[in-house]
Amino acid sequence: MNIVPEVALAAIGVSIFKPYFDQANELVNYTFIDEIFHVNQVKEYWNGNFDSWDPKITTPPGLYYLAVWWLRLTGLELSIANLRLLNFVGGVLLIITTLVVKKYHNPGLSALSLFSSPLLTIYYSLFYTDIWSTLLVVQSYVVTACWKPTLTSAATSCLIGSISLLFRQTNIVWLAFALAVIVDKLAKDNYRNILQYDMGVFVRKAFANWRIVTPYAMVLIAFINFVISNGGITMGDKENHVIKQLDGTIHHIRDLCGSHCRPDSIVRAAVFHSTTVVLETPSSASGRPFSVTIGIRVSMELLVVKVSIPSLFQLRV
């Protein structure tokens, strides 16, 4: 496959978006909404105050450590524009990740399929956790989906997924999904398209390949310990980030899935063993940041299963 046209397309896409990035930084040259917490935390770390923590921040400090490393490596001054540039670079790396999948696994994939997602592009011009959280989760998933199911691929995927937890702790959901993909690839040849039987096959394969499952189990145990010791999944400002049942969200998910996915895909998504991955030309809209948060974003972000992921792969029954 000739990847040169896709590289050219990626370059055009970045060159088109870069002026928007520059203009956004020119017009919004101040901390925007939650940026005030993120930027101030980077300033603390930049000054060596690693014990300082703003209780209003609800996510782990991965982005702030990365930002300090980024500024010191590049020699850039600490400014809002340079911190936002880090996220723009993350978007470019997302394109590169997509190109790798296109070249070796899915020729029908567009280089800009994830980069140009309307639900993601706004964060290239803001210093939020979404971009790097998305990038790391995508890379963790790509390893499980594209590599053979071995201890090496499981450990690599788990390592990348664990790093993503330092940006968004709710990425534990996608780490569990990556594990399901690996086990499903091991079990798929024994399926009979009978739900209860195939669920049994899946569970037996998981126990039979316990070495592959072990890295994920260790991270899960560590995460459970974190939730217990932290008194919840939210790191700070727990009073304003309480898990509640949002009945309206179910209707949002229904409507959005119905508008972006083929009808049969919605049915297939409900089948337990539909996590087997095969490569196919993408047939749905481009994706959403791979991070599950609590509240209003849930209705959009759960679409990853049937919108973002099919942009790289197609779920199979």
From TrEMBL:
It is found in: Endoplasmic reticulum membrane. Pathway: Protein modification; protein glycosylation. Its main location: endoplasmic reticulum. It catalyses: an alpha-D-Glc-(1->3)-alpha-D-Glc-(1->3)-alpha-D-Man-(1->2)-alpha-D-Man-(1->2)-alpha-D-Man-(1->3)-[alpha-D-Man-(1->2)-alpha-D-Man-(1->3)-[alpha-D-Man-(1->2)-alpha-D-Man-(1->6)]-alpha-D-Man-(1->6)]-beta-D-Man-(1->4)-beta-D-GlcNAc-(1->4)-alpha-D-GlcNAc-diphospho-di-trans,poly-cis-dolichol + a di-trans,poly-cis-dolichyl beta-D-glucosyl phosphate = a alpha-D-Glc-(1->2)-alpha-D-Glc-(1->3)-alpha-D-Glc-(1->3)-alpha-D-Man-(1->2)-alpha-D-Man-(1->2)-alpha-D-Man-(1->3)-[alpha-D-Man-(1->2)-alpha-D-Man-(1->3)-[alpha-D-Man-(1->2)-alpha-D-Man-(1->6)]-alpha-D-Man-(1->6)]-beta-D-Man-(1->4)-beta-D-GlcNAc-(1->4)-alpha-D-GlcNAc-diphospho-di-trans,poly-cis-dolichol + a di-trans,poly-cis-dolichyl phosphate + H(+). It comes from the Eukaryota. It is an enzyme of class 2 (transferase). InterPro entries: Alg10. Its EC number is 2.4.1.256. Keywords: Endoplasmic reticulum, Glycosyltransferase, Membrane, Transferase, Transmembrane, Transmembrane helix. It holds the Pfam family DIE2_ALG10. Dol-P-Glc:Glc(2)Man(9)GlcNAc(2)-PP-Dol alpha-1,2-glucosyltransferase that operates in the biosynthetic pathway of dolichol-linked oligosaccharides, the glycan precursors employed in protein asparagine (N)-glycosylation. The assembly of dolichol-linked oligosaccharides begins on the cytosolic side of the endoplasmic reticulum membrane and finishes in its lumen. The sequential addition of sugars to dolichol pyrophosphate produces dolichol-linked oligosaccharides containing fourteen sugars, including two GlcNAcs, nine mannoses and three glucoses. Belongs to the ALG10 glucosyltransferase family. This is Dol-P-Glc:Glc(2)Man(9)GlcNAc(2)-PP-Dol alpha-1,2-glucosyltransferase.
